Records
---
Amino acid sequence: MILTDWKSGTRGCYCSGISRLKHPCTVSSTSRTPNITYADAITICNYNAFKKSAVIESGWESLVPHLLPFLTTTSFPQNEVDVTSPDYENLTFPEWDSEELSTRWGHRIEDMLLECRWKQSFTCGPQDFEMTWTDFGPCFTFNGGDDRQPGGGESPYVANDSTSEEGLWLRLNLEQHEYIATPFDTAGFRILIHSRYDWATFVNPGIIQAAPGFTTIVPLTKRIINAKKYPYVTNCTDDGLKYFATYTPNTCLLECMADAVLEECGCYMAWMSGGDQEVCDFATAAACGFNALVGVNCTCNMPCTEEQYMTRVSHTATPAQYAIPKLSAKYNMTAEELRNNIVDLYVYIEDMRVTVIEHKEAYDFAKLTSDIGGELGLLLGASVLTVFEFLDYLAVYHLLGLTLLKNFCQRITGKRK
């Protein structure tokens, strides 16, 4: 649904249909140490989108079950919502937009972030996280900001080495006492590690789950895939987006979905990007936006150059038994609250080497000219050899003829004498 189908392997990749025999390609993989540093972005989402106390205080608690499908969908909706049903007809949606909703109802990074350290020495804080609307609701991104977009700046957080000291350590508070009923019945954080040039969407398969009572350790490696444009089967794309400076499968997908909602509703959902168009208010999102995505088919080719972060995840229990009294006093929590709410996350670079996967023509112009030269050389070499063989034949033929003629003459002369 998202990516154009393509096949690859150690023996090669081939175009489909008639082009299969005309445009074969090969796949090569190499490792190199980059001249650049790692500056990945980390997006963190609480499984609970809205805080119970804020929702109850606002008086809109009856509205939340109806808002969740529109604000925390992680895929294309399969069925339309009938907003004329009795469940919706008596609802009055608030006037404020989705960003205000996050400010009023959502978890605040100032409350969830207990501690933050970068490279074990620099103390980071809430000011280093940016609230981001995703298809999973309001989330927070560390080290975000695409410097290719207007207003985006270079990353201040770069890793220069692959030691475990070169990483980000977070201690987070789930605030489970603020949980309300969600479609997931799950407590924890969703973590997405992605390029700063990409958009965080949770249709991405590389999602990490961080549970309370555990330290989630995530070593990173990086690979770059260089694909080929048409007529090769990868049929990659590196431009053509209206709302994003960088083409990725996620940005292409979001633009496709935004166009579908814009065409149907005249606005786009909060977790999309629609340029200068308006974000849908709650009433429009409920009556139009969600249903506009039903049945939408987005075909997005792979980018010509794609950065991927490969992860390995491991867990250890936290906090240790001996640390509970100290942490209870520090955070004003009981031992049970610590176990139910504390999530430690440690992300670092495991290897500075980058794996580069490159799709190349199996038979390119250089090989063609080389083969033509070889064949011409063979043919020309054979022609010259034939000339010399012919001359050799003539020489031998004439020498043999002269010898025979001489012998014949000698025999005739001898008989006459």
---
Amino acid sequence: MAAPSSSIRTLHLTKNKGLKRIFSGIQPTGIPHLGNYLGAITNWVKLQEECSSVLYSIVDLHSLTTPREPTVLRTNILDITAALLACGINPQQCFLFQQSQVPEHAELSWILGCFTSIPRLQHFPQWKIKNANQMNEGTVGLFTYPVLQAADILLYKSTHVPVGEDQVLHLELTQDTARRFNKKYGEFFPVPKAILTPAKKVKSLRDPSSKMSKSDPQRLATVAITDSPDEIKLKFRKAVTDFTSEVTYEPDHRPGVSNLVAIHSAIAGLSKEEVVHQSIGLDTAHYKAVVAEAVIEKLAPIRSEFKRLKEDRSYLEKVLQTGAEKAKELAAPVYLEVKRLVGLH
């Protein structure tokens, strides 16, 4: 095996704090929204500071489970790259790369798929929901994408994976797959552990009973991190609340106002109690404006940096190319050893 590049040596020699290697991925499905930013991306920025070996992948192979035009997908890949960089992801502190540029992801997925039963995949709630949405004509890719997720993680012998509650089942499949492989071929893959961070669940501004989503048909429901100040003000002004003017945090009884408080809390770095206390005397109409201004202030530098990066396509492509080269240096020897263990090499 060739000696690791200086970039990899540097990454491994920095501080560790007990986290050996982190892997996480994000699909290129458009500009991240406020929920993506507060729920995942801010955590990614923090983790790159705390761990010596961090890989963040733009999982474009996963995005093929939902049909989209090639030109749209290519644009989305560069958009999410620019967005992550604008939010603080630093290619000098992590490996940021495009999944499909490291073919070992798909190749390992096939091998791991041969260790995975059909009934196990049929039990995933995401399959049941998406298959129903596609009129029971879900594709093989949609059915087996949890196996590809397992390959994404195990390919780098990752020890920790930041996940939301809705992804715990997928990580359990990865853990079980690692155990099955190790039982048959000897201890090889670490069994990765979940990093469950305090959930910052951002709800739709138009329907606080559901999560904020890029695919929401209501234009005013979702705040993109690149929205203009006027767009943000309008969306918060139109946010669903209730007929009580006082600002309180009661998710079960006042979901709309509580969603605003949760957003304000996460943006300002304050507890919900502190936010509510600061809002004494404000009615909900004025409070919407306060939250909007806090969001505008937080997102302004991100929006500006995103715009600058979008104009430098060659730089974005270079970041992804360099990241893929670094990731492949880690992935290739692992996959080569897997091939040897199973008898393919």
---
Amino acid sequence: MSCRGDSDEDSSRKRRVSYVYSPEYIETCDTLSKVPNRASMVHSLIEAYGLLKHMSVVKPEAATIEEMAKFHTDSYLEHLHKISQDGDNDDPQSVDYGLGYDCPVVEGIFDYAAAVGGATLTAAQSLLDQKSEVAINWAGGWHHAKKDEASGFCYVNDAVLGILRLREKYERVLYVDVDLHHGDGVEDAFSFTSKVMTVSLHKFSPGFFPGTGDLCDTGLGKGRWYAVNVPLEDGIKDDRYYQVFTSVMQEVRAQFNPEAMVMQLGADTMAGDPMCSFNMTPVGVGKCLQYVLQWQLPTLLLGGGGYNLANTARCWTYLTAAVLGKTLSSEIPDHEFFTEYGPDYSLEISPSCRPDRNDAKHLDQVISTIKGVCVVCVMHRCLCVNRCVSSC
């Protein structure tokens, strides 16, 4: 099974890649009730394919309260720490902080949040220190958490923390989100700034979580035109998705000219995911990833959703190989979780026969609208490939 994208194979192989990992970190991430043992499954498959020897394995450090407070409020972090100590799910204040059904309180949940946030900060720091050109934290990517609220299985917004760390060095950071769900927490965090552009491709339909991310949501104040949303319907497959992705990203790059990038690669877009929405395969997402990697920017890669655990491991293992320019056998190697990949024991994910509800004419209109917004962005914010040379 080929993992090579459109970029030159030799340049892909020379890419310096950091991979955040420690046994303790994986064990902590395995405790997340919505995706139990997923972190172990992902890491074990990456290891079974022999990919670790091609990356610099970096041990993560847990985030301190001060580091998480770069985004989250003190009151939220203090409450999360308090209830985490004994798994108190009955504290009446918890509902005010989004803790409950989607984000249940369990003993040690603060330590989990600190571990995930710290791992993404560790990955971002490896980019700042120029130890790598691409840094990976597949157990991160929890993009729904707000400043003072847990949301959608997300207790800490490690993506925001990673962007803030990159902003210590880079003037303009691009965030690209290809999770099934809108990256609302990240967009909200940077909705008023022109220093971070957020781009999210996601399912958008009445009643679908989180209910935000319409085409007309483009940012606020100084951040107007710096949020790009691409709402999609059920059933989209690789080819059409890639066409939309490249059309949008071509405009985004030309107008924003990013210096660094964070990409959230939630695997709940895969065919066979319990969300039963998109009809993607790792090959299609891999082509999107290769498209932006050819820009040769410092790039932080994060996980996110993905609720068919075997398919999520397939997807992120494939993407890891794509970053490294490696070709993987379609036959899953024998390892601890081998039986989870039956009955075919293949790395490949086949799309289903479900219909694509994305009308081509509608998608053309979406792309045209986004391109029109980019033109407005240039006119009213003085953005261009060569940067602004005069004040507005």
